[in-house]
Amino acid sequence: MGEKQFPQEPASTGNGVLAAAFDVTGLAVSSMSAAAGAIARLVQHHGSTAPDLSIDSQLASFWFGASFKPVGWELPPVWDSIAGDYRCADGWIRLHTNAPHHRAAALSVLGLGAGADRATVGTEVEHWMGEDLEAAVVAAAGCAAFMRSQEQWLAHPQGQSVAAEPLVIWGAPRLTDDGGTRQHARPASAARPLEGVRVLDLTRVIAGPVATRFMAMYGAEVLRIDPPEWAEPGLEAELTVGKRCARLDLKSADGLAKLHELLAGADILIHGYRPDALDRLGLSEGWLAERHPSLVNVALDAYGWSGPWKRRRGFDSLVQMSCGIAHAGMLHFGSDRPHPLPVQALDHATGYLCAAAAIDAWRERLDGILRSAKFSLARTAVELMRTGPSDPLAPPPLLDPAVLLPEETAWGPGLRLPPACRISGLVASADVPARGLGSSEARWLKPRNARVVRAEGG
Fold first, then answer.
1. What's the pLDDT tens digit per position in 26-55?
2. How wide is the angle at C-alpha 354 spanned by C-alphas 351 and 358, nearest 5°?
3. Range of 66's domain?
């Protein structure tokens, strides 16, 4: 098999672009096109003719920001009170402190107590050299990124390693037949191409949840698993729609045993663990391939799968600081401080690319061929930084409020963007309303007991 390529972009409609030092709207359209193209190929596999595709660039831009607006209530803050950019002795550094243990790590390094405010943190950060503070916070199991230019990143060992990686790291193909894919039907159809496909979601924050949200909209049964203490209150309404969300303590024997049970029933695993994290749980890539030979395994991380930072914790905003995006924005807009992208585009684009790979891999698995795939935010950034800045004369995307769709969530009513991807003959819809993390049991719901009917050509 040759190297996989994502499809040519379908027709793009809509006007307006997000103002940025790079073509963020173009990235939104191309990554969504990849996911929509994978759905179209699966539709054909189910015996239908190739559907027509189009992407609304205005809606794509908005989906890269936020798709949900509450009505009559407010979303909790997305950012912790001390998260953000700080001036250090030789530049700027970003502290990511949304998770309590990441906040504690940063404050510990700075010698501050739990109640420290932004001003106090800023005073302490000013005394540090950026790379020294970055290294100290990371060594304390926290998350920080010193702002580098594109040139500095390309000269950095990690920047060089990531640039040498392919956008999608595909595993070697292998033959598989689990006695289920070919002998027990998934109730999928051309109209609902992922119906009956079980997706185990071990991701958090944005990129992975974007991938599984997209798959849920076309019928996949998505079960998201979070640790007992994890919280994302500002993102739950945005990213849990279409999914059931449960909690497991994978550090306990019972929690790990339950995860093994879920893996045995899953079709696709999407996880955001760093390269060594699953190994410590006894769930290495090799073990998964041996124990679950028909499981599609898609993984993503922040800084890439090779190089000295391959085990580094990271998030979109940190990668933007590390790789030169925030610095390029500062120069482009003439700002006196880091100027990141207007949306967390690395997360969203990587999410749609993950969905595309998972769907393509599932389609191949239906024919008895299995491959894994890996992505990273930093490698997606390489693609974005190959583009030019947005047109300064182009208008911003404008949203007609009349297109918003009413939606009920566990927290109250709201309005959701309509899909940006238009696939003829298909309606993207969620079977499960947005609900809080830990709101469901850790089990699969839909039984499989029908005999298979192979699609034409399958």
1. 999 999 999 999 999 999 999 889 999 999
2. 140
3. 13-77+169-307+341-423
The amino acid that residue 288 corresponds to is L
Instruction: Give tens-digit pLDDT for 180-226.
Output: 554 445 678 778 999 999 999 999 999 999 999 999 999 999 999 99
∠ CA(190), CA(191), CA(197), 5° rounding? 75
> What secondary structure, in 3-state letters, does 126-163 show?
CCCCHHHHHHHHHHCCCCEEECCCHHHHHHCHHHHHHH
Q: Which two tokens stand for residue 292?
A: 């679950």
- Mark out the alpha helices in 183-240 (DSSP H runs): 207-216, 236-239
Answer yes or no: are the C-beta atoms of 302 and 314 closer than 8 Å: yes
DSSP state of 336: S
In three-state secondary structure terms, 95 is strand
Tell me how far apart the alpha carbons of residues 224 and 270 are, in angstroms, rounded to a whole number. 10
Beta carbons of 68 and 238 less than 8 angstroms apart: yes
Residue 119 within a domain: no
Give the separation between CA 193 and CA 458, rounded to whole angstroms.
Answer: 14
**pTM (two decimals):** 0.94
Type of residue found at 319: V
Number of domains in the chain: 1
* Confidence bin at 179 (pLDDT 50/70/90): low
Can you give the CATH number for the domain in which 282 is found?
3.40.50.10540
